[in-house]
Amino acid sequence: MSDSHFPEQQGYTHDEAVLEARRCLNCKHQPCVDGCVAHMNIPGMIQAFLQGNGDAAKGISSSFNDFSEICGRVCYQEIQCQGSCVFNKLGKPIQIGKLERYISDTYELPAEVHPQAQGHIAIIGSGPAGLACALDCAKAGLKVTVFDKNDEIGGVLRYGIPTYRLPRKVLDRRVNELKQLGVEFLLNQTIKDEVEYEQLLIKYDALMIAVGSPDINTINTVGAEHPKVIGWEYFLKIVNDGTDVFESTFKNVKDILIIGGGNVAMDVAKSAALMNRNVDLIYRRTIPLMPARRVEIEELHNYSVRVHELRDPIKITPFYDQVIVYCKKTKLEVSKEYPRGIIVDDEGTEAFLADLFVLAIGSGNQAQAIQDLNMDENNKIIVDDQQATSVPFVYAAGDAVTGPKTVVHALSSGKRAAKSIIAALSHE
Known about the structure:
The protein is an alpha/beta fold. It folds into three domains: 14-106, Fumarate Reductase Iron-sulfur Protein, Chain B, domain 2 (Orthogonal Bundle), CATH 1.10.1060; 120-214 and 363-424, FAD/NAD(P)-binding domain (3-Layer(bba) Sandwich); 229-359, 3-Layer(bba) Sandwich (FAD/NAD(P)-binding domain). 35% of the residues lie in helices and 18% in strands. The protein contains 17 helices and 13 strands. The chain has helices at residues 14-21, 31-35, 42-50, 54-64, 68-74, 81-84, 96-106, 128-139, 156-159, 168-180, 194-203, 232-240, 243-249, 263-274, 294-299, 399-402, 407-424; strands at 120-124, 143-147, 184-186, 206-209, 229-231, 255-259, 278-283, 306-309, 311-319, 322-333, 342-354, 356-359, 394-396. Helix 14 (263-274) links the parallel strand 6 and strand 7 (278-283). It is globular.
């Protein structure tokens, strides 16, 4: 999809970045660092920038996160670094995300290779965890081959985030850097069965699983198998393929119903609205309990998205070329043991007529075929604090381990996996 399809969310000019950076107090106790998943030295980055040393600022950022231009655009700054800023008490935290984005976009440092290990590793999945692991392993001198089921590189970064939030040119710049470091990408490769995994374990010195959560879980609702009921991953892939593909695929779709309350649901809703569709969003709990970013939820009104809280689908029936989604009304019973509340039935139902029903809810895992790989009751891969699994020389990172989390969580876990792999294959 062309980056010009939707207007890109604008970042700072140089003067704007300087003005914002000057507000930083360079706090001694650095609460913003504590709030950052990657524990980036944010004050150090800002001060280097203010001193006119943009390369040093970029170097500080990259030492903690090589994908800072991506995180600056898609991170949960409001509840992480910015949410921890001392100015947050006044409602005017330092706009760390925009500063990170400006510095990362403006200054570029070439990746340096410092051989520390030898061997050939395989990574399954080219999303944020896989790319972060690939980059660090390549810089350490390892040969890296990345397998991915899609026909382009990036996983959720390419297929799950609209281009107005993450332009493809930003992602492609990082992908090209990886290729220049010698990372090999084998696309349209789906590795699921035990034999295929066994072959990888024989051929490669280490294996890192970063498959994310690509298999959409259907809702346990009568009629959910109807072709008008689709998953968010497919919907956003069509969105990102461009207007022509979208209009051809969904040419008779005017009214779209979405279920979910996370960031994926927000992206689906806004993308549908930007395609001039009528959009309704249902959520089983209340709006304040939606896990999505506050700013994303608040922006739904600007996109004319109608939000219906405390609604839970119970039946889907066909109606000519549409579907009727019947929902029971719910309520929350809050207690000390369950502060978020237990969802219970309330009186009444509501029916929604839609041309398309998009499931923007939780996902599963596709790595169950590996023999002796320990997984929890939710089909998440069990790892230690170094991202090592129960199988020797097999590591895992990202949503395959944690379930759906943020991009920076996936990047950080990918870096931890790389550190473990490098140590295991070190020739020192």
